[in-house]
């Protein structure tokens, strides 16, 4: 059994007990524990079930590489699935549950998959579940999905918050082991701006566990002193609990700070996503121990040797009373010593190498431990927990020599440098034959904005495994002056690559050798992939799912590559690795979204009158980031009724529209007229001062993109109104042409959209209302249609445009935005006697439709040219050029068969459904029903008491009076007559009064 | 996440402060031009795997357009220069040629 | 080319011998000196083109040449959305052809591509979007594509984890295609490769085409890293690399190569059995059979050949999806990646003859060509075998000259 | 002038830094030849300062001139003085190609005060705030909207955004400055 030792544990504080629950059972740990060490301390070795076969899964590792020990953590708005217990700090009251089993961890129905494992090899699902055809979706897929999928689904809204932060540094050093610390000291002393980040809560990495001596001190003391030195340098920033999750182009390094994971609910942001811009990056991210592939290596109790050592030394926890060690290198003997020092039993060290005579093996022998040379594990005994191992000759086929009883196995297959960050931006690796590892190829690093190397790897991350060399290298890599710190650690004999144990294991054993214990990928699966031609390592990965689990194969991908290479008998470097992608370990979606949620999810643009609308029943419509009132609902009123009420009010008396969102762009200069003539299809240079003109803009591709009223303010100054969506777009468009094409033209522009609150006062009583406010002569003769005036209206600085989008007598009044609300209130007060009625965008839309005015976004959709909308009158014939003119000369644009704008009147007075198409006879070459037109705007007109619509119809204007058919579904066909699009007040008598 | 120095205000801006604007040094073809000239101008853009000249706008900054020479295969930035240039500055071209000897030139 | 059929019985049989008896899914031949047809690019489109050349036209002296590993391009890295609810007739025709072929692909190829017609919805979150989607429903009806407009309540029934109340962008309804869904992307490439190989075609991997040989305006063959190969007809089907290959053949395409990104969450138990696209906020998501939430991001605005995108697109997408699916906030991103997509001026594909006689292109699928693989292969094969195909008619590379665009952006913002 | 109100009526929040809407401020966009003598005189008259160099803001009392781009300045004056200043600038620049626009009502102004003010900006702007030179104005974005800021006091930054998004910006500032979320330990 695993237990908490009486003494020891560098990182725990026995005076601070913490309690937590696992599957409802109360357990106890200490401050400084991880969930994993606390679970082991409470003899909870088995913590979950595997993905495919639902086999029992125990804790294997002590860090980021852990594939198995995932739990659901927390409750309600703080529940999170798949939490890696080895990297989660214990906190008081933590609630945890094991995953992927039903009904219980101990008894899991899904485990019957395990009985049939023989029938479920890699990719079996590609070869079956094909009949009957519907069965995949309705029978097989649901079963597959249910048994897969690991963690439970969060249900509640996240109770935590998150944030971003930007940091800048000359040098960011990733990894707080001795390599990172030495590099930081070296760089810090030269006054460079340095960041040193460490993913765990503690500095020192492996050296402090291994009992390395640095500059005559214990590594732990050297680390403590070094950190003090670093803290005293204000050019150095130190961060624990901060993981470099990815390195992106141009030195952009994402660092994931777990601010409050260990103090949930304390009000701080849970995670902070640092966006560090680094002049250079040093990865001192260490190395990860590899598992060994022997039968039953997935049984709970089989662990990495370094992890066993960590649990004993860091947390005072013993994974087992009797621990057999199996290895292909000397480092694992440190684990034997650590166990012995803790008073635990090591029945034997099984060393695959023909001979183990190094300093460390001898030290272990000296403590009376059997060292079995040239041996391996044939298979591990036990089900939910290790009960023993059977020993065999590594060079053989697995015949049992002896059986050793034990309750834990510590394995070491060598080490793999953590090369993720090095590789994220394309840094290449080389194969180190002697140490059997891929390590960074200094000749092929990832390059940055200047084309030079962006990253340097040092320490174990660079494949350097002895403390002394590591310190020297790290010191040098950071441009350290003077002598590097020196270290003493036991000398080590060479390791020997071991990819399958025993070497000659037959199929039966290989079907029990796990490479990826989370996804249940075994040696036999990789060999099957090779046999079937999935030869590329990327094919093998995707066919077997090797390395695609939540640990991304940190522990054993290399074993898989080696097995694949062996199966294809090609060298390992020819196989290569799969692509390393961010994040290094999974990061929360919450952190990725940062502060952007709720109120500040996105900017919400408000007009000066926004609050009034809000408090007066505005039914909002998002228009870009603005919100405009679609209509104003009175108590008990439906949307449709409200809209009709508003229209009647405007047509019969007077209404107010908040038009502040319309774009307002000033264009000024000697060449402004010439410029606008290029921008608009019509002639703007000839517009007299004091007057307004409706204008159209096209893209260079000829399509109508925006429209609005242009105002000539003075000899060299124009004001261009754009659509709400157009303001920024068109302003940018203007600047683009002025800066990049006609930079010799003397024109300045300014976007003054938000300077003004603009209100349309429309209806027969509009003039009366303005006269009541007083201060300006708005009479028919003094202020004709399509002109503008400036003055003081009811005490407000105002510019008034006499333009109409509703067909009514109408004035658009612009006042300073800061006074907008006051002016709105003044209009409401003065308008009371006329029953003045604020109206929304829908009323506006319907009224313009009654008048046959087009609407950008309704009549246009990016495929429509002005000619399609019979707007020829707004296209100057005198100009030999304007943006879009050339495009409109292309064959398809002048095709007489183009669909053109007409009015549509249903035969029965009903409303044609939105977006309906007019069918034509027959079908096309692809069997699709031919069409001859479509509806672009369709409404019920309260003014006319019937449905009205505009649409685009092939040769429409030549077909007045013709009735065409709109099939609208359910066999229903709406018949509509082609008519003039102007339905109301054709003569314009109402607006010209 | 690119960084480019805006030649108009001197800020080393990050990508999120900028707006990309496609191929640089385009010649506009208007009325009277041939169909294929116009097609070439509007649609058939250079798309090299390597050295590329492109337009950028310092949108969340000084608002000015500028031009950049960048490698689309490594994202290396060779330099930025004013939008009011009819061709890449000679010294920039020289710098690129030094780094990319087999570069076929900007045209 | 006798090919052992896959079936549950085959598995049982092989299990007895510990699966030692399985044969290769496809051969890995050395290139011959000449083929009737050479197809550059062993992605879905290239392989499907080869498959239908053989199946529909009996042309089997075909090589599919791949610089990397087959299916390793965008086919191997896409978010697998399959739908045909397109607005414009030519698009609806080819995407619906493809979708219908997906229905029987597993049986046709004897390879389970796990086509899962689980239903797909595009949320309407503004009045404008709603009108656009209603228009699409009307168009689809006449095109013979089954789609419908569904209410917010129905959306909530189909996707319990969704938040339809906004506040910022309440869900006003959705464009729903019940027979849209997903498929196992890698299996599509593998299934076609296996079938092509079985017909005697050569799928040649780790072989990069470095040049196109022409004579008097006619194609002669290609140069490759494994030597020269002659052919009568050549198809360039290389997605993100289209411009590079066109350059070799001596013409230019209206294409720009941009990085498009995607990401997956850690796997969780089944919680969403529909594909949801939210175009107002720019995010879309489905859940794979393994349990990850599969999420599509945006494209960078600048030309890029690196298969790495900029992180801010991932942030925008995740923000948008958390607003729509609040539970997502407590999941973790497991992995992110990018692919190089080929974008045309109207964001619609090109299936076309070219200025070089005998050279055909199939490209420009941009962010949305996984769903079209079988339809595109079918049409491309017809174009190459017969010289014309009603499905490719409108997708000529010369349409930009005439101004005859096929613009889908008018309805949906995106084209995944 | 009592009719004129700023977007948020001067709200403020106290977290580890104090963030506040600063109320109305006269602001004028001036475009023209920044090197011209006319411009020098015009700016001098309007603000009492020289024409600011690239990315600089010249401050004198309650008036200032800020460099926006190679051909654009932002003139800051008391709100009440805006119209008169516009007129004066127009006069001074008459005859030379220029553009003067009153944007006083199109903007919102915020102050971020306290020893840790910098940390608030570090959470919102992709800018190396630590290296911001005294008297430097930085145009950038604050989260998702355009903004410009400069160090306006010993422990104070002033940030300007568009008026329509004032609520959003204040939301950002308030969240970013919440006590407990300091970026660095004292
Ligand atoms: C992140 C992402 C998400 C997507 N999501 C979707 C989605 O949800 N739904 C959808 O329908 N579509 C989606 N797409 C688009 C879809 O993936 C592509 O349109 C489709 O896969 C293109 O297939 P293809 O066969 O044309 O190209 P590819 O699959 O890219 O194949 C082209 C092949 O050509 C090879 N090649 C290139 N140059 C050479 C050469 N010189 N010699 C030899 N071989 C060469 C490449 O190596 C590659 O294997 C997505 C794309 C991406 C990147
Ligand atoms: N003898 C052997 O076989 C052997 C093998 C491996 C290691 N070692 C010993 O281990 C030590 C290696 O020292 P080192 O400093 O190179 O490595 P290390 O493992 O001691 O330290 C690496 C540190 O980087 C951190 N880290 C990793 N990825 C990170 C990320 N993405 N973001 C933030 N932090 C991250 C880890 O948490 C760890 O603290 C030496 O003492 C060496 O002798 C020995
Ligand atoms: C639909 C889909 C689902 C995926 N699921 C996983 C997954 O569960 N685990 C994983 O590690 N990667 C997953 N990936 C990502 C791939 O590992 C890989 O990153 C992607 O195909 C791009 O290839 P590359 O990263 O090798 O360039 C998935 C990709 C796709 C398209
Ligand atoms: Zn700039």
- Broad structural category of chain C: alpha/beta
Q: Classify the helix fraction of chain A into a percent range.
A: 10-25%
Shape of chain A: elongated
Uncertain residue segments of chain A: none
Number of beta-strand segments of chain C:
18
User: Strand content of the residues of chain A, in percent?
Assistant: 25-35%
Number of discrete helical segments of chain A: 24
- Count of runs of 4 or more consecutive helical residues of chain C: 11
Question: Can you put this structure into words, describing what you see?
Answer:
The complex is a heterotetramer of chains A (993), B (107), C (416) and D (186). Chain A is α+β, with helices and mostly antiparallel strands and 993 residues long. Chain A contains 24 helices and 53 strands. In chain A, strands 9, 10, 13, 14, 15, 16 and 30 form a 7-stranded mixed β-sheet that branches. A 6-stranded mixed β-sheet of chain A has the order 44-45-46-43-37-47. Chain A has a 6-stranded antiparallel β-sheet with strand order 49-50-51-48-53-52. In chain A, helix 7 (305-315) runs parallel beside helix 8 (333-341), helix 8 (333-341) packs parallel to helix 9 (359-366) and helix 22 (766-773) crosses helix 23 (817-831). Chain A is elongated. The termini of chain A are far apart. Chain B has one domain: Folate-binding superfamily (Folate-binding fold), CATH 3.30.2270. Chain B is built from 2 helices and 6 strands; from the N terminus they run E-E-E-H-E-E-E-H. Chain B has helices at 35-42, 90-99; strands at residues 3-5, 12-14, 19-23, 51-57, 65-71, 77-82. The model of chain B has no long low-confidence stretch (mean pLDDT 97). Chain C has 11 helices and 18 strands. Chain C has helices at 8-16, 44-57, 89-103, 105-109, 127-143, 152-158, 185-198, 242-249, 311-324, 373-386, 399-402, and strands spanning 34-40, 62-65, 81-82, 120-124, 148-150, 173-177, 181-182, 202-204, 209-215, 218-224, 227-236, 255-265, 275-278, 283-287, 293-303, 332-344, 350-353, 359-363. In chain C, strands 1, 2, 8, 9, 10, 11, 17 and 18 form an 8-stranded mixed β-sheet that branches. An 8-stranded mixed β-sheet of chain C has the order 5-6-4-13-14-15-12-16. A two-stranded antiparallel ribbon of chain C has the order 3-7. In chain C, helix 2 (44-57) packs across helix 10. The radius of gyration of chain C is 21 Å and the shape is globular. In chain D, 23% of the residues lie in helices and 34% in strands. Chain D has helices at 37-47, 82-93, 117-124, 166-176, and strands at residues 12-14, 18-21, 26-31, 57-60, 63-69, 72-77, 99-102, 107-113, 137-142, 145-153, 156-162. In chain D, the strands form 2 sheets. A 6-stranded antiparallel β-sheet of chain D has the order 1-2-8-11-10-9, with helices on one face. A 5-stranded antiparallel β-sheet of chain D has the order 4-5-6-3-7, covered by helices on one side. Chain D is globular. Chains A and C meet through strand 7, helix 3, helix 13, helix 14 and strand 34 of A and helix 1, helix 3, helix 5, helix 7 and helix 9 of C. Strand 34 (587-588) of chain A pairs antiparallel with strand 16 (332-344) of chain C. The site of zinc ion has 8 residues of chain B, from loops. Zinc ion binds at residues 6, 8-9, 11, 58, 61-62, 64 of chain B.
């Amino acid at each position: 059994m695993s237990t908490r030792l009486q003494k020891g544990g560098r990182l725990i504080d026995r005076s601070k007990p913490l309690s937590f629950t696992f599957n409802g059972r109360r357990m106890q740990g200490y401050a400084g524990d991880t969930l994993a060490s606390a679970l082991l301390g409470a003899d909870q070795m088995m913590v979950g079930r595997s993905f495919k076969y639902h086999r029992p899964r125990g804790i294997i590792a002590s860090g980021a590489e852990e594939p198995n020990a995932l739990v659901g953590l927390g409750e309600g708005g703080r529940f999170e699935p798949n939490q890696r217990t080895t990297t989660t700090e214990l906190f008081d009251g933590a609630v945890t549950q094991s995953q992927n089993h039903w009904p219980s961890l101990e008894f899991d129905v899904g485990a019957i998959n395990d009985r049939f494992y023989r029938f479920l090899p890699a990719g079996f699902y590609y070869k079956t579940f094909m009949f009957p055809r519907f069965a995949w979706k309705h029978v097989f897929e649901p079963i597959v999905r249910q048994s897969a999928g690991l963690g439970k689904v969060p249900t509640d809204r996240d109770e935590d918050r998150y944030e971003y932060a930007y940091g800048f540094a000359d040098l960011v050093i990733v990894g707080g082991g001795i390599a990172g610390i030495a590099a930081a000291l070296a760089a810090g002393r030269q006054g460079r701006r340095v960041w040193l980040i460490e993913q765990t809560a503690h500095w020192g990495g492996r050296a402090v566990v291994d009992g390395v001596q640095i500059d005559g001190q214990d590594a732990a003391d050297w680390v403590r002193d070094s950190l003090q030195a670093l803290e005293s340098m204000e050019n150095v920033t130190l961060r624990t609990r901060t993981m470099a999750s990815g390195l992106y182009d141009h030195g952009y390094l994402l660092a994931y700070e777990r601010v409050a994971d260990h103090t949930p609910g304390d009000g701080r942001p849970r995670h902070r996503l640092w966006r560090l811009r680094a002049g250079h990056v040093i990865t001192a991210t260490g190395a990860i121990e590899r598992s060994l592939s022997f039968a039953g290596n997935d049984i709970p109790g089989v662990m990495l040797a370094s992890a066993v050592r960590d649990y004993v030394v860091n947390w005072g926890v013993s994974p087992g009373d009797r621990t057999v060690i199996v290895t292909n290198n000397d480092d694992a003997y440190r684990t034997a010593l650590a166990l012995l020092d803790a008073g635990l039993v090591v029945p034997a060290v099984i060393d695959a190498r023909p001979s183990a005579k190094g300093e460390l093996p001898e030290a272990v022998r000296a403590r009376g431990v059997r060292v079995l040379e040239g041996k391996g594990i044939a298979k591990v005994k036990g089900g939910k927990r290790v009960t023993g191992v059977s020993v065999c000759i590594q060079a053989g086929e697995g015949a049992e020599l002896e059986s050793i009883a034990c309750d834990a196995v510590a394995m070491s297959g060598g080490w793999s440098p953590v090369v993720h960050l090095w590789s994220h931006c394309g840094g290449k690796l080389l194969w180190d034959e002697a140490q059997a590892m891929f390590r960074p190829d200094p000749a092929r690093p990832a390059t940055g904005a200047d084309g030079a190397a962006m990253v340097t790897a040092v320490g174990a991350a660079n494949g350097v495994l002895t403390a002394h060399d590591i310190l020297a290298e790290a010191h040098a890599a950071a441009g350290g002056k003077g002598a590097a710190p020196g270290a003493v650690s036991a000398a080590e004999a060479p390791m020997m690559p071991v990819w399958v144990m025993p070497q000659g294991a037959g199929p039966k054993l290989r079907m029990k050798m796990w490479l990826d214990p989370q996804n249940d990928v075994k040696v036999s699966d990789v060999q099957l992939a090779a046999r079937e031609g999935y030869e590329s390592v990327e094919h093998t990965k995707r066919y077997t799912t090797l390395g695609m689990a939540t640990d991304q194969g940190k522990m054993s991908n290399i074993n898989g590559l080696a097995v694949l290479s062996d199966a294809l008998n090609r060298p390992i470097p020819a196989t290569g690795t799969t692509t390393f992608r961010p994040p290094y370990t999974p990061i929360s979606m919450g952190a990725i979204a940062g502060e952007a949620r709720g109120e500040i999810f996105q900017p919400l643009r408000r007009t000066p009158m926004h609050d009034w609308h809000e408090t007066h029943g505005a039914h909002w419509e998002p228009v870009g980031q603005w919100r405009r009132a679609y209509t104003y609902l009175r108590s008990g009123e439906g949307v449709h009724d409200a809209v009709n009420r508003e229209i009647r009010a405007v047509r019969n008396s007077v209404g107010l529209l908040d038009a502040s969102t319309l774009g307002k762009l000033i264009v000024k200069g000697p060449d402004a007229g010439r410029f606008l003539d290029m921008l608009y299809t019509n002639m703007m240079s000839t517009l007299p001062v004091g007057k307004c003109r409706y204008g159209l803009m096209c893209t260079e591709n000829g399509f109508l993109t925006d429209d609005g009223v242009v105002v000539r303010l003075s000899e060299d100054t124009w004001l261009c109104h754009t659509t709400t969506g157009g303001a920024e777009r068109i302003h940018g468009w203007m600047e683009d042409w002025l800066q990049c094409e006609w930079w010799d033209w003397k024109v300045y522009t300014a976007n003054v959209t938000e300077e003004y609150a603009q209100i349309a006062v429309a209806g027969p009583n509009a003039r009366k209302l303005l006269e009541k406010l007083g201060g300006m002569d708005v009479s028919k003769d003094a202020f004709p249609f399509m002109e503008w005036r400036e003055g003081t209206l009811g005490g407000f600085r105002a510019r008034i445009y006499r333009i109409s989008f509703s067909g009514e007598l109408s004035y658009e009044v612009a006042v300073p935005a800061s006074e907008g609300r006051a002016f709105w209130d003044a209009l409401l007060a003065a308008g009371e006697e006329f029953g003045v009625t604020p109206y929304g965008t829908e009323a506006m839309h319907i009224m313009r439709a009654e008048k046959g005015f087009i609407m950008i976004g309704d009549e246009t959709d990016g495929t429509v040219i002005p000619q399609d909308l019979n707007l020829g009158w707004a296209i100057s014939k005198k100009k030999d050029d304007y943006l879009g003119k050339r495009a409109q000369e292309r064959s398809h644009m002048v095709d007489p068969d183009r669909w053109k704008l007409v009015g549509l009147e249903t035969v029965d007075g009903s409303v044609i459904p939105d977006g309906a198409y007019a069918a034509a006879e027959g079908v096309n070459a692809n069997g699709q029903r031919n069409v001859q037109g479509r509806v672009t705007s369709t409404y019920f007109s309260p003014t006319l008491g019937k449905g009205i619509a505009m649409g685009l119809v092939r040769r429409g204007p030549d077909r007045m009076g013709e009735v065409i058919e709109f099939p609208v579904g359910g066999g229903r066909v709406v018949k509509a007559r082609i008519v003039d699009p102007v339905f109301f007040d054709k003569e314009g008598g109402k607006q010209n009064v | 996440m690119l960084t480019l120095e805006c030649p108009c205000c001197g800020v080393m801006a990050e990508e999120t402060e900028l707006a990309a604007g496609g191929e640089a040094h385009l010649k506009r073809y208007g009325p009277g031009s041939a169909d294929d000239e116009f097609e070439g101008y509007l649609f058939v853009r250079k798309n090299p795997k390597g050295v590329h000249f492109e337009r950028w706008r310092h949108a969340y900054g000084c608002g000015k357009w500028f031009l950049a020479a960048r490698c689309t295969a490594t994202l290396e930035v060779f330099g930025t220069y004013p939008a009011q240039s009819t061709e890449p500055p000679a010294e920039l071209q020289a710098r690129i040629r030094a780094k990319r000897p087999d570069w076929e030139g900007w045209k | 080319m006798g090919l052992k059929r896959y079936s549950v019985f085959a598995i049982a049989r092989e299990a007895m011998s510990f699966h030692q008896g399985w044969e290769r899914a496809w051969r890995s031949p050395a290139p011959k000196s000449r083929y009737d047809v050479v197809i550059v690019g062993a992605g879905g489109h290239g392989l499907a083109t080869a498959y239908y050349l053989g199946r529909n036209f009996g042309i089997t002296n075909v090589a599919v040449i791949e610089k990397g590993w087959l299916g390793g391009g965008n086919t191997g890295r896409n978010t697998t959305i399959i739908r045909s609810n397109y607005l414009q007739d030519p698009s609806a025709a080819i995407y619906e052809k493809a979708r219908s072929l997906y229905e029987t692909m597993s049986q046709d190829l004897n390879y389970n591509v796990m086509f899962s017609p689980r239903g797909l919805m595009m949320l309407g979150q503004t009045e404008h979007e709603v009108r656009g989607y209603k228009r699409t429903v009307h168009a689809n009806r006449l095109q013979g594509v089954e789609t419908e407009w569904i209410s917010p309540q129905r959306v909530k029934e189909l996707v319990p984890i969704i938040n339809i109340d906004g506040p910022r962008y309440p869900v006003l309804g959705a464009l729903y295609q019940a027979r849209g869904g997903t498929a196992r992307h890698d299996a599509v490439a593998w299934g076609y490769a296996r079938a092509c190989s079985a017909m005697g075609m050569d799928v040649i991997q780790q072989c990069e085409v470095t040049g196109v040989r022409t004579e008097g305006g006619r194609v002669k063959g290609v140069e490759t890293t494994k030597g020269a190969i002659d052919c009568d007809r050549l198809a360039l089907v290389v997605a993100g690399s289209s411009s590079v290959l066109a350059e070799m053949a001596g013409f230019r395409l209206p294409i720009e190569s941009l990085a498009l990104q995607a990401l997956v969450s850690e796997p969780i138990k089944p919680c969403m059995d529909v594909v949801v696209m939210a175009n107002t906020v720019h995010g879309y998501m489905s859940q794979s059979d393994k349990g990850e939430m599969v999420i599509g991001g945006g494209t960078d605005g600048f030309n890029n050949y690196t298969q790495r995108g900029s992180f801010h697109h991932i942030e925008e997408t995740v923000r948008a999806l958390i607003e729509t699916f609040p539970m997502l906030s407590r999941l973790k991103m497991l992995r992110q990646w990018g692919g190089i997509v080929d974008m045309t001026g109207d964001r619609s594909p090109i299936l076309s003859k070219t200025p070089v006689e005998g050279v055909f292109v199939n490209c420009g699928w941009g962010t949305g060509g996984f769903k079209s693989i079988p339809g595109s292969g079918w049409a491309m094969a017809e174009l190459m075998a017969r010289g014309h195909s009603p499905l490719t008619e409108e997708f000529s590379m010369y349409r930009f000259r005439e101004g005859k665009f096929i613009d889908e952006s008018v309805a949906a913002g995106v084209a995944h | 002038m009592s009719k004129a109100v700023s977007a948020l009526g001067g709200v403020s929040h106290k977290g580890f830094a104090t963030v506040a809407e600063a109320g109305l401020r006269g602001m004028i966009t001036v475009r023209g030849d920044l090197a011209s003598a006319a411009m020098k005189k015009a700016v001098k008259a309007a603000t009492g300062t020289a024409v600011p160099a690239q990315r600089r803001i010249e401050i004198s009392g309650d008036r200032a001139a800020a460099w926006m781009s190679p051909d654009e300045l932002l003139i800051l004056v008391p709100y009440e003085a805006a119209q008169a200043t516009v007129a004066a600038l127009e006069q001074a620049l008459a005859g030379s190609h220029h553009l003067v626009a009153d944007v006083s009502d199109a903007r919102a102004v915020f102050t971020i005060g306290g020893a840790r003010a910098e940390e608030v900006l570090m959470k919102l702007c992709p800018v190396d705030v630590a290296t911001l030179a005294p008297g430097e104005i930085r145009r950038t974005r604050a989260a998702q909207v355009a903004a410009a800021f400069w160090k306006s006091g010993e422990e104070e930054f002033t940030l300007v955004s568009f008026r329509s998004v004032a609520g959003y910006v204040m939301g950002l500032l308030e969240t970013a400055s919440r006590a407990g979320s300091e970026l660095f330990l004292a």
